[in-house]
Amino acid sequence: MAIRKNGAKSDFFTKISLVVVLALISLLILLPLANILKFASEPTGLDIFKALPESAVDREIVKNTLKLGLTVGLLGTLIGFLLAYPQVRIEFKGKKFFHLLNLVPIISPPFAFATAVIVLFGRSGMITRGIFDWRPTLYGYPGLTIVLTLSFFPVAYMNILGMMKSLDPALDEAGQSLGAHKWRIFRTITLPLLVPGIAGSFLLLFIESIADLANPLIIGGSFTVLASRAYISINGDYNVPWAAAYSVLLLVPAIIVFAIQRYWSQKKSVISVTGKPTGRVQTIKSRPAKFFILSTTYLIALLIILIYLTVIVGSFLQIIGVNNALTLEHFRYVMGGFGNDAIMTTVLLALIATPVAGLFGMMIAWLVVRKVKRGADVLDFLGMLGIAVPGTVLGIGYAITYNDKVKVFGHTIVPQLAGGGAIFAGALVIIMVYVIRSSPAGQRSGIALLQQIDTSIDEASASLGASGSRTFRKITLPLIRGAFLTGLMYAFAHAMTTLSPIIFLVTPDTPIMTQKILAEADQGRYGNAFSFCVVLIAIVLTVMGLINFALRDRKKGNLSS
Taking a C-beta distance cutoff of 8 angstroms, is the pair 507, 418 a contact? Predict the structure, then answer.
C-alpha cells in the first residue's frame, strides 16, 4: 500500500497508523478466517465438501439458507421501501414518531421478535388461539421469514430513505411539466434512480438473514440452515472440522454478495444531485394512493407496537397468556445472581469496546480517504470484513483461534484468551469481537463525511508544521464528529445486542445478556427472557442518549481548540 506524501511528520504518523490498523485487522478478522480454512481443509472437513453433491441433507440445508436469504431480502426491502416512501413523499401526522418506531428493531435483541411472535401467533398464541382459535405452526420457514423480515427491514428503510432524500425534486417537476402523471414519473424517473439503493438493501438483508443464528435456534424447528448446522457441529457433534466446513459454505455466498453490493454501490451509482436542489418535493395528494401507501406504515407500526408491548407486559406477568397475575419476580431474577453478573459484564465490555471500535473505524476511514494512495480499496474492504463475515463464522473462527494459544513464528502472542477460567481472558476475546463487528459502521460514515471535506484543511495544518497525529486529533476528528457519534452509538447498540459470534466464546466468568436471553427463551421461561430484553433496551437507549449528549455538549469546545 502506497502512502500519499504530506510531509515527514505526517508520513511517520501515517505509517505507524497503517501498521497498527493492518495488525489489528490481521488479529481480529484475517487470522480467525485463516484458521477456519485450515480446519475445513482437514480430511473430515473435506468430507463435507465431497459429500455435498450426493448428500440430500446437506443440499437441503444449503437450499434452505439461500431460500431464506432471498425471501427475507425481497420482503425486507419491499417493506423498507414502502415505509421510506411516505416519509419523503406524503404529508401525514406523526411522521417523526413513525420514523423512530421503524428504527426500534435495531436497538433490541435479535430474537426479541421471535419470542414475542411465538407468544402472540404460535400454536398456543394469545391472538391465534386465544382470539381466532387457530393453531398455526410458526416453527420453521414461515416463522423465520416473519421474524427476520421484521428484525432487518430497518436496514433497507434507512438506506432507501437516505437515497430518496438526496434526489433532486427538479427531476419530478421536469416530468410533470412535460405532462407525465405521477405514476409515470415514479415508474420512469424515481424508481430507476433508486435502483442502486434498492439492490444494495436487498443484498445487505440477504447477508444479514443467512448469517443470523439466534432466530433459527429459537424458531427454526426442523428448518436447518448453515448457521445453525455449524453451531450444532461444534456444540453438539464436537467436530471442529465439520463446523469449519459448514462455515466456509456459509462464508462463500456472504462474501460474494457483499462484494457485489460494494461493486454496485461504487460503480453503478446514479448521480441525481449536482449542486443545491432547485425544486420542491412533489407530495402525493390522491386520497386512494395515500390510503394504500400509509396502510403499510400503520400496519407495520401496529405490529411493532404489539410485539414490544408483549415484551414489556410479559416481563411483569407470571406466565403471559396463562397466568396474567402481576409480578416482579422476573426482574428480581434478572437483577440478582447470575442475571446481574450478565448485565454488569455485558455493559462493561460494551463500554470498553465502543470507543475502541469508534476510533478504529475513524482511523481506517482517515487512511482510506486521506492517506493511502494505492490499496485504499483493499484497506476499505478489509475493514468492512467484520460485517461481511457471518457472525457464526466469526465466532467459530475465534473459538478455534483463541481457545488455546496463538503462535506467530513460534512465539505466543495471545495466551488463553477464551478459556482457562480467567475473567480477563474471556472478556478480552469478546471485546475483540465487539470491535471488529461494530467498527464498519463508523468506517462507512467516516468515509462518507471525509469525502465531503476539502483536503486543503489538512494541507494547511501540515504547512504550519503540525504533525500528522496533531492534525488528526485537532482537526480531522472534530470535523467528523457526527460520523464518530454515529459510530459510537451503533457500536454500543450492536455490542449489547449481538449473539451469533459470542455464543461460542462465553465462559462462566463472562456471562453475556444475549446468551442468557437465548437460554431463558429456549427453556420456555419467557417472563425472564422478556425482562432481560426490557433491561437491555433501557440500557442501550440510556447510554446512546448519554453519548449523544456528551459529544454534543463538547461541540463548541472541540471546534474552538
Answer: yes
